[in-house]
Amino acid sequence: MRNVIKLSRLHGKKIFAIRDIFSINQILLLVKFNSNTKSRSILVYLQTLILISIFISSPIFSERIVTQKDEEPDDYYGLKIGGVITPSFGYRTRDASSGYSDTSPNDQTGFSLPWTLLTINKEWEELGLEAELWTEVIRSSSFSNDTVTNQGNKADPYTLGIRRGNIKKKYNAFGFNQKIIFGIQEMPSTFTQWNGSWDWRYMDRSPTESLGFFNAPADLGLSWIGEISILNLQLGLANGEGYRSVQNVESSGVDGYARISVSPTIEDWKFGLHAIARSKNLVGLAGNECLERRSNCMVDDNNPNTFLEKDLRSRKGETAGFELTVDHNQYLHFGAGYIWRRDYEGSVRDRLNSTSPVIYNRDRFGHAIYSWLGFGFNDFWIVFRGEKGTGRNGILNANFSDKDEVSYRLNNPNDFNPENIYSSKEEFIKRSIIVEYRIAENFRFGLGGSITTNFNPRGERERIYIDPIGETRSQNEYESQFTRNTNLGIVSYSKREERLFIRASFIF
User: Which of 137, 162, 207, 361 has its CA 20 to 30 A from that of 476?
Assistant: First the structure.
């Protein structure tokens, strides 16, 4: 604060301008008097009065709003601002025998920024309220089909999206520490990431996330969490499409899910048994969304004389799994689990032809098993991980049904199509390793790699077919060389996907 007193003469009069400048406002006091009628004592009186008013008004009008203290961190006031930066480099090895290399555009090769977040949390402890707002660096192709990644013509730069945006209410009742979460939140399949069992969440996704237990690791919804002693429970509803998508993209229904975790501790060892269940489109299905040409539920057969309708049951599904974990923060992290999935099918009928037969489709099933073992010595850790399941490229899919093969052969003796007689035997095996050095508590550097082997619907190892000029060809073209006695020079090679990566993660 400073006082500026200016004295000047103007037309035979003395003008005193006294200006008090505060941190947030200005007070201008203009005093005029005639030197012939006022004495110097009046000036002294006015100066004294102004000084008194300054001391009185200063704490009222210019008191600084305290947002932090030098000796206290930001979270002392309930505000936490942090982030995660994970620069990465990925490389896909070229097949040694065929010379083939997949060059499709994605972030798994070259330099990229996966799992780069800016996190803002604000807590009102007295009210038991907390707000979360997490932003995430993602590619534009995640929400636009008009990029070069999606065969469009626009660039595909990084941009910011919302990873979390929710409000939490904490309270105690019936001996439980309870919490209600409303908004974009993590799904229960990521629970073992945040409790430390899968301790490499910014080096690689956990098995339940990469296998696709839910469509995305986070979603919009409402959930309740209760905890007492070693027991942790969670119940919730979610859109089901994932946090990067809006409702009604796949269906108007809402998913329901539940989780129960038991985590006893014995000295330095922590054990965990976790069970998770998801019911796809539990409630809210619209009655007309499985009509032909209305959605992807019922594919258009391009026949103007039919109007097909599929049972809404085909929109439903169930996924369940359990996981066992054993952890020692200094030496060991072990986990193993199993996931089972069922996608319902339904009857198909023609609304324009009431006499046409109803077609019944069989439900489809899928399953996966996985495990990991990580052990460390001081700041050096090595992690081995394996996954096997129905589907392709490490993603679980319900692709087989319990067909009665003998009965079908007897009733359809002229049908030799294996796809009609046998269930799909498509599956994958994925093995990976991570070597990590922990430079500091919040700074890690890692090297890793994975090998994925796919098997086709016949149960045969996936192969690639190369012609004499190096172009890829189909399996039918390759097999036609033997059925038609035409040598096209197409050669078959076994195929597997091998990836390497270098990744650093810094949490602040």
Answer: 361
**Token pair for 474:** 């189909």
- Mean pLDDT value across residues 392-405: 80
Angle at 263 between CA 384 and CA 228, to 5 degrees: 150
The tokens for 364 are 């489809």
Start-end of H helices in 361-449: 405-411, 418-421
Residue 185 · residue 166 · CB < 8 Å: yes
Tokens, residue 452: 């994925």
Q: Exposed/middle/buried for 101, CB within 10 Å: 0-12, 13-18, 19+?
A: exposed
Name the amino acid, one letter, at 469. Answer: I
Distance CA 250, CA 240 (A): 9
Please check whether residue 387 is in contact with residue 430, taking contact to mean a CB–CB distance below 8 angstroms: yes
Question: What's the CA gap between 322 and 304, in Å, rounded?
Answer: 48
What number is the average pLDDT over the span 372-396? Answer: 93
Which H or E run includes 476? helix 475-483
Task: Give CA–CA dist 202/115, Å, rounded.
Answer: 6
CA distances from 395 to 218, 295, 345 (A): 17, 24, 21
Question: Collapsing DSSP states into helix, strand and coil, what is residue 407?
Answer: helix
For the chain, the maximum distance between any two Cα atoms, rounded to a whole number of angstroms, is: 128
Q: What is the mean pLDDT of residues 356-385?
A: 92
Average pLDDT over residues 414-437: 82
pLDDT at 272: 96
- CA 200 remoteness from chain centre: 15
